[in-house]
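Course assignment 3, question 2. Fill in each field.
Student: A.L.
Task: Predict the tertiary structure for the chain below.
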Amino acid sequence: MPSVHIEPDTPIVQRVATFLSAHPGHAFCGDCLAQRLRMDRRVAWTAALRLGESREFDVDVGICSSCLDRLDDVAHVRWITPSQPEAPSKARIRVTYRPPGSTDARSA
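Answer field:
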């Protein structure tokens, strides 16, 4: 099967990008992507591979959101990973000792 060459800024790549952007949180295998976009699988997947070179999209191994039963290369909008605040280098714990029988100023 001959390979398909697609330039990065072609209408086909834009069409695949628009579709994937409209479905955040979903990943699509080459067959389902081609079926949804009504185009040849090789063309759709080559466009997805072009998008995978960008910062906004990924192509990796996963489960297709459409057929669900296939572990395959899938294309999707890059997953958003929430940033975690860094823990302090030394944990600080504040302990207040109240001798028995003392009154709590907050409860007065």
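Instructor remarks: Residues 7 and 50 are 8 Å apart (CA to CA). The two ends are 83 Å apart (CA to CA).
Grade: pending
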